[in-house]
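Entry 14. Structure prediction run on the chain below.
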Amino acid sequence: MLDSRNTVIRILGIDPGSRQTGYGIIDSDGSKSIHVASGCIYVKGDNLPERLGNIFSRVSEIITEWQPVEMSIEQVFVNKNVDSALKLGQARGAAICAGVQLNLPVNEYTPKAVKSAVVGTGNATKEQVQHMMAMLLSLNKDLQADEADGLAIALCHAHNRKLAGKIPLSARRRSKGRWL
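Output returned:
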């Protein structure tokens, strides 16, 4: 159970994908977090515009059903396949638009920052993230990789919120368009 003396917020984490989008919802006071819901959106549609519309609709439904107050999402990284990175960016945009449309503040994190926050190393494997999410959130179920990533993104944001709250605004630095 979370300590009622601290402010508890509901956070939605999104791991975007044009075929499968993972999501995780936690309640957190920054120190303790509990699992609320998680899963994968199996994106339907014969072409990319249909799939993007499906992502927007499903993320909107999840937000409406679970009522998170903040959203966090993984930033796009380019590996070798530029076409895949572009599709991922568009899937990410559809999810962000759903959050913004429903008045959620949206926070972005690099894959390395997420892995570092929940596993302790930015080079963690998918399996390590899955294991840590099950352990940190006391889950007795196997998590799909995208589902675990959605939870990890939400947990990363919960930890960053707590840290930001301890640093006076006047002492924070501006980095890449965001206040730390």
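Confidence is low (pLDDT under 50) at residues 167-180.
Filed with the rest of this week's runs.
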